Amino acid sequence: MAPTAIIAGAGPAGLTAAFELLQHTPVRPIVFELDAQVGGISKTIHYRGNRMDLGGHRFFSKSDWVMNWWQNLLPAAVEPGTEAAPLRLAYQGRERMLNASHPVLHRDKVMLVRSRLSRILYRRRFFDYPLKLNGKTLTNLGATYVAAVGASYLKARLAPRSPEVSLEDFLVNRFGERLYRTFFKDYTEKVWGVPCTQISAEWGAQRIKSLSVSKALLHALSEPFRSKQDTAQKSTATSLIERFLYPKFGPGQMWEEAADRVVAGGGEIFLRHKVVGLHRLGSQVQAVDVRDEASGEVRRVPCDYFISTLPIKELTQLLQPEHAAVSRIASELPYRDFLTVGLLLKRMLPANDPSSGKSANGIPPDNWIYVQEPDVKLGRLQIFNNWSPALVADPANAWLGLEYFCSESDELWGLKDGALMELASRELAKIGLADPRDLLDGTVVRVPKAYPAYFGSYREIGHVRDYLDQLTNVFAIGRNGMHRYNNQDHSMLAAKAAVDCIAAGSQDKTALWSINVEDEYHETRKRPETVLSRAA
Predict the structure, then answer these.
(1) Which domains does the chain have, with CATH numbers?
(2) Beta 398-406 vs 335-345: how paired, if at all?
(3) Are 311 and 449 in contact (CB under 8 A)?
(4) I need a surface site. Which of 27, 248, 295, 438 has the fewest CB within 10 A?
(5) Pairing, β 298-302 against β 111-115
């Protein structure tokens, strides 16, 4: 019989691992997913004909392998009337004509090319994100304040903080004290619920390492010379990407397609099944206990490999380490939860944004808006109309996702759905973006353990990784599986690295843990791990 790999979780990491095992090994994947649908945090939520993207997922990667993987499953759509001029994706000195190499066989199984626009709402005014040194920014801030920002930045460059331990150190060194306190501090602390001084600098190294004032200035100066067709833009810092691919029906469409390919290739996927026990002999997991959430039945499934996207604290509990310190560190790893309030509105208000007036229903052009206002709890606002028109049942309406960052123990998390929708509607009115009388409908989606946090016992996580590395047939991958704030392409690359180990019969997991640095997705490992972007 073919060897088997049990995969806990059908998110981007788990499904990529399953697909790659079928492509490159004789190993048969069996995937167990607790949710009723695949995709993890990258799933698409359906609500009365509308679709929601949890967190906003731009399909862009500096990895050629990831870009090709996505396009092989869902090719890029060619806009009507442009068939004679196929879409060009240019990166690493190569060009690809997607409708020639990836013919669109189904008009709905495609990715759209979308323009990226994110802005900051601060002092009830809109600022470009990333900040641009242009007339609008100068007018919004005022000449005196801009001069103070410049002096603060110069001071940070001449006398940087050393050693760079906390997120505050990281951000001040790159943006200056004044800019940090204006556009980073309050928002980041709203997201994480702790001061920036308590968050590891490693978070910044993984999320916005490539971004700085000098690079933002260079980006602005080079704007007239860049091709708007360059979707994969490897020379552009991730936070500055201006075009990206996006599945027509939201991010979950990609992972639903991946799941279909896994099953068609001989793999198995079981939804509403929870891994509740691991049976280990020495350094290997030999079998997994899985509970069917519908029937309550628990069955034991033998395996040759175990690939986990479970939160590290849950995986460690199941493994029952011999070392008490490993169990303690894993059990104390912190997370940040968030909830999205979906609101359907007749229209939005132009507020202090002339661009909103260009839309018939007042919808601004942003994919999302960072809400930097201290007098509301709202952290970020998604405008689903601008991700894909197919996410909205009636394009005459505005379909929004209001993101609130919290913990499961918070009062906010415990509010009933109706109360949360009332809060969200009031806050939209307070910041001048909507009138509560235009509210048509709404829903609430809670996402526990959405963000692995970089404080508390995270400083000791190297000991947990060392323990997991000793288990020769166990591979921890994905955002929660590695307790790392991964984008979905990082999770996919970690899955690929795990499959490469299995295919080569290797027990060296160095490449797996090396994934996730913004420049080239490789980093130097430190021991112990003691070492943050705006936030979400």
Answers:
(1) 4-40+254-333+455-513 (3.50.50.60), 77-108 (no CATH), 133-221 (1.10.3110), 335-452 (3.90.660.20)
(2) antiparallel
(3) yes
(4) 295
(5) unpaired
